[in-house]
User: What shape does this take?
Amino acid sequence: MIYIKSSAEIAKMKVSGRIVYETLCEVEKHIKAGITTKELDQIAKEYILSQGAKPSFLGYNGYPASICASVNEGVIHGIPSRRKLKDGDIISIDVGAVKDGYHGDAARTFAVGNISPEAKRLIDVTKQSFFEGLKYARHGERLGSIQATIQSYVESNGFGIVRNYCGHGIGKEMHESPEIPNYGTFGRGIRLAKGMTIAVEPMVNYGDYRTTVLDDEWTVVSLDGSLTAHYENTILITDGEPVLLTDY
Ligand code: MF3
Ligand code: CO
Assistant: This one.
């Protein structure tokens, strides 16, 4: 069941989406060599709470933090720790917040100091793959067109598109129907409609697309240990241009 949001619900999703965006901005300001991922988690948590919202990841299936902080070969679900960031690292930050019963969810990959040209290209291609897919985030288009466009953009750049984890519908729940893999068939799948809210989130490995989970049972890393990047926004489908609820 895919929920179509009313204008009152959309107004609430705009509020939670903006809080997620602002949290990412707060965290970004503090990203530099020497800071720990736990400190970044604390900054995010305090900001979300200061806005009268709740960090939606905290306690989700037992997840122990407010953000996911995934460094270098870390794809998603990196648990904040006492690990210090180093110059040249890349770090994916994923944030979720819920306010007045509605969720926002977004992720970015940031550079720590000076990064390699390869890492920069990975981050840029990952972000651009989202925007290529977004061209089909329109009333009447098929979901598979977003998925296939992301996949072909990533693969034509020589990178691996992660298949084990997906984007998703979002609203009253962080994860609603439909599931949105970052691969698929152009012109297939459900038809998008005005009032749907979806989180599209390409995860891109520099090398092979496969992943594995560490012994902490959360941290997802690239199987070959290659660098990896993530880019996610919560999107509102309208009868015209899509609206990014977590980007301003
Ligand atoms: N942001 C993730 C997603 O898009 C969810 C994080 S999982 C959690 O699905 F356990 F950390 F909450
Ligand atoms: Co998500």
Summary: The chain is about 30% helix and 25% strand. The pocket of MF3 (ligand 1) is lined by residues 57, 60-61, 63, 68, 77, 94, 96, 105, 199, 201 (CB under 6 Å). The helical segments are 7-30, 37-50, 117-134, 143-156. Residues 7-30 form the longest helix (24 residues).
